[in-house]
Amino acid sequence: MKLINIFLFTIIFSSSCNQSNGHKKYERAKHSIIAEKITEKVAQKIEIETGLHLIGTGGGMMDCVKMMAMSFRGFGEIDVIKGRALIVHCVREYLSAINENLDIRPYLSHYPFTSKGIQIRIFITQTTPTAEALCFIGEIDGAVEYDVRKAPQESPEIVHQEPYEEAVRILESERRLSHL
C-alpha cells in the first residue's frame, strides 16, 4: 500500500508540474528584437565598407537597452593609425543606427546613446605578426585599446589606449591636416 501511495504521489506531482497550460513559451522582449535588427543591419554595412566579418553580438538588455555589442574578425596588417580610423568608423555607424531608430529609443537607458553604451571588438588575423601590426582593437566603455602580438605563441600586449573621444579628435585633426 505504501508503494502504491508513493507511486500515485509521484504521478500526480510530476503531472502537475508538467501541465501544458502551465508552461509559458519564452518570448523575447521587443527591445531585444529591435536591437538585434539594428545590429544585423550595421554589421552588414560595416562588412561591405571595411571587409570586417561579424563573429559575435551581445548586449545588456534585461529591462532596457543598457549596452549593445559586436565583435568582428579582420585580416591584414593594421597599425594604430588605421586601427583608430577603423574603430571610430564602426562606433559611429553603430551609434548613428541606434540613435536614429525611433522604435528602440523608448527602451534605451539613455538617449542619445553614447560610446559608453556600446562595445566593438575587432580581432585581426595576420600572416606574420610584427611589433607594429595590431591583433586587436576594442572600444569598451568609452575607451579604445590597441593590442599587438609579436609572435604567434605570445599573448597580446596593449600598445596604446585612449578615450574614444580622444581617438575621434585625433582622427579629425589628421583629416583637417591632410586637407591643407
Key traits:
single chain; 180 residues; alpha+beta; 6 strands; 25% strand; disordered N terminus
Question: Could you describe the 3D structure shown?
Answer:
The chain is of the alpha+beta class. 41% of the residues lie in helices and 25% in strands. The protein contains four helices and six strands, in the order ααββαββββα. Strands 1-2-3-4-5-6 form a six-stranded mixed β-sheet. The chain is globular and about 55 Å long. The N terminus is likely disordered.
**Count the strands?**
6
- Which class of secondary structure composition applies to the elements? alpha+beta
Mean pLDDT: 86
Low-confidence stretches: 1-20
Question: What percentage of the residues does DSSP assign to strands (E)?
Answer: 25-35%
Please give the share of residues in helix.
Answer: 40-55%
Question: In terms of topology, how is this protein built?
Answer:
Elements: H1 2-17, H2 30-50, E1 53-60, E2 67-75, H3 80-100, E3 118-125, E4 134-140, E5 143-148, E6 157-163, H4 164-178
Parallel strand pairs: 2-3
Antiparallel strand pairs: 1-2, 3-4, 4-5, 5-6
Helix pairs in contact: 2-3, 3-4
Short description:
The protein has 180 residues and is α+β, with helices and mostly antiparallel strands. It has helices at residues 2-17, 30-50, 80-100, 164-178; strands spanning 53-60, 67-75, 118-125, 134-140, 143-148, 157-163. It has one domain (30-178).
